[in-house]
Amino acid sequence: MIQVGIIGGAGYTAGELIRILLNHPEAAIAFVQSSSNAGNLVDAVHRDLVGETSLTFEADPDLTKADVLFLCMGHGKSKEFIESTSIPASVKIIDLSHDFRLKAEGNDFVYGLPEINRELIRASKRIANPGCFATGIQLAVLPLAAAGLLKNELHVHAITGSTGAGQAPSKTSHFSWRNSNVSVYKAFQHQHLGEIRQSFQQLQNSFDFDVNFVPVRGNHTRGIFASVYTDFEGTAEEAVKLYEDYYASHPFVFVTSENPDVKQVVNTNKAVLYLEKHGSKLLILSVTDNLLKGASGQAVQNMNLMFGLNEKVGLNLKAVAF
Questions:
Q1: CA distance 136 to 84
Q2: Of 38, 106, 221, 315, which is most buried, counting CB atoms within 10 Å of its CB?
Q3: CA-based Rg of the chain, rounded to a whole angstrom?
């Protein structure tokens, strides 16, 4: 049984992790850390877990009890935690922040997108879990990059649910502002662009085009709907075959023949892709759950790979149609 520790346990991604891990047949939660909630019941913060766990938050857990640590802290905090904490060498780490996603000298974290790095993840002790927007956008484009078919700039319009902003309330996340509202933010300069470009260049060394990304705050709670288009010389049928072949061995990515919607993937670790050809442009629609395939579900998928399990174990999550 894999013993799991969660650092920074009060936020949305930690709550999703706990929900998944409580039902994971090969994992047990050793502790959930939270300085601000130390001594409180976990289900007093994550109310959806009422009746499912008697765990309490700990301020300073014994890290030797864990085989793997999930770091669910804010950006910048994971690096600070690792540098200031004595973590046993045997403990594996999966970081859900932005801190280690970009390659740099001294960074031994593997970028945790299984659809490009599955074998590296299996062999790694430290994983940088991808960002939510980055996951959906990359899955929409990876087959083109792998085939060397990115010949021009990419145009991306993607809308995310309010949980993508985290649990701490802010001007643009509270209900009265977000409900019945839509707004653009960080156009052309979103923090996920670096990891997106890094992955495209990993698969296609010659990639040096703009990724014109316009992120949108949606008025729904969870789910990302990304529209991507770029030049493609082949037919629609050739594009579909390219995508189906690329994802044939990846169990959470599905190419559909019908225009998708967010409800197909909410509460699941799935990504659903749909393609259309319009003149010289290939349009790819990508839908994912920002808290699952975009965060905690993918983190558990990575844990499964790191410990030699089938990557689907514990992730048989069902979408809710209504």
A1: 33
A2: 315
A3: 19
Half-sphere exposure of 131 (CA within 13 A, CB side): 25
To the question of pTM greater than 0.85 for the whole model, the response is yes
- Residue 182 contacts residue 218 (beta carbons within 8 Å): yes
Tokens of 85: 């904490």
Task: Tell me where in the chain the CATH 3.40.50.720 domain(s) lie.
Answer: 2-129+295-306
Give residue 250's Cα distance to chain centre. Answer: 15
Q: Is the pLDDT of residue 173 over 90?
A: no
Q: Are 212 and 155 in contact (CB under 8 A)?
A: yes
DSSP state of 73: P
Catalytic option among 17, 71, 96, 132? 132
The predicted structure's pLDDT at residue 304:
98
Q: What does the DSSP assignment read for 115-154?
A: HHHHHHHHH-SEEEPPPHHHHHHHHHHHHHHHTT---S-E
Among residues 106, 132, 144, which one has the least CA distance to residue 240?
A: 144
The length of the chain is: 322
Please compute the mean of the pLDDT values over residues 213-226 and round it to a whole number: 91
Domain with CATH 3.30.360.10 in the chain: 132-288
227-284 pLDDT, tens digit per residue, is 999 999 999 999 999 999 999 999 999 999 999 999 999 999 999 999 999 999 999 9
Q: Which fold has domain 132-288?
A: Dihydrodipicolinate Reductase; domain 2 (3.30.360)
Task: Reply yes or no on whether 72 is catalytic.
Answer: no
Which residues, listed in sequence order, are joined to residue 94 by a DSSP beta bridge? 70, 127
**Topology classification of domain 2-129+295-306:** Rossmann fold (3.40.50)
